Every structure is written in C-alpha cells, then in structure tokens.
Amino acid sequence: MNDTVSTSRCAACKMQRKKCTEKCVLAPYFPQEQLHNFLLVHRVFGKANVLKLLRDLPVEQRGDAASSIVYEAQERARDPVHGCLGVINDLQRQVAELQSKLAATEAGMAELSVQHEFYNAPFQVLDDDADSLQLWEKLWT
Q1: How far apart are CA 65 and CA 54, in angstroms?
Q2: Distances from the Cα of 100 to the Cα of 89, 103, 108, angstroms
Q3: pTM for the complete prediction?
Q4: 34-74 pLDDT, tens per residue?
Q5: Cα–Cα dist 141/7, whole Å
Q6: Rounded to whole angstroms, how far apart are CA atoms 93 and 96?
Q7: SS3 content of the chain, % helix, strand, coil (to 5)
Q8: Within a 10 A sphere around the Cβ of 15, how many other Cβ atoms?
Q9: CA torsion angle 29 35 40 46 (round to 10)
C-alpha cells in the first residue's frame, strides 16, 4: 500500500491538518488554493458526506459533482433558506416573463403584417355596376 505524501495538501487535508496522500479523493477537486470553497462545502454538507458522495460516483463524473456541490454551498451561504432553488425559481420567472413578451411581440408583428398587406393591396373594383360606383364617388368627394 503506497500512501506517499504529496508536496501540497488539498484544502480538506489542510483544514484538518493532515498529510494529504496521492489516494486522497478530495485532492483533485479541492486544491489548497480553494480552501474557502471547501470550508463552505464542509459547513453545508460535511466532509464525510462529500467523501461518500464522490466515492460512490464514477471517476469521470466526480468533477461535475464537486463543482455542483461547491455551487450549492455558495448559494446556501448567500441565501440560507432557498439556496439553488431560489436561483432556479428566479430564472424560471424570467423565462416566463420573456416568453410572455415574445408572444406579445409576435402578435404585434402579425397585426402589423396584416395591416401592411391590407393597406398595400392593389385597389380593385369588384362590381362594375355604375350605381355602386356612384355610391362610392359620393363617399370620397
């Protein structure tokens, strides 16, 4: 069992004042420079829960999971009640407002298109009856 010590500790090992080994699961996702992020994650989720979560995932998914965990912890620090759900609700509200504005704009454009076609249509007399032409002449004079 080769647990050689790396030259720099990860944020988790630094916080716990432990030696960081090459087999440290947290080292790739919480480097020493990101101590603040790990402190937030530790405060919200706990180190043991994060370790268990990352160990249970395939290696190729751990980076995305760690990023998501950090983001959730940051949002929890910013908004302790709603966290990421508050951000999601805000974005959904913005999407609904923009969809409403888009529908109103499209309806306005359709109305303008109809008006444009009506006013730019060539004038045609459909009825050649002289009486109806006289009636129209009275209206226009």
Answers
A1: 7
A2: 17, 5, 12
A3: 0.65
A4: 899 999 999 999 999 999 999 999 999 999 999 999 999 99
A5: 98
A6: 5
A7: 70, 0, 30
A8: 16
A9: 60
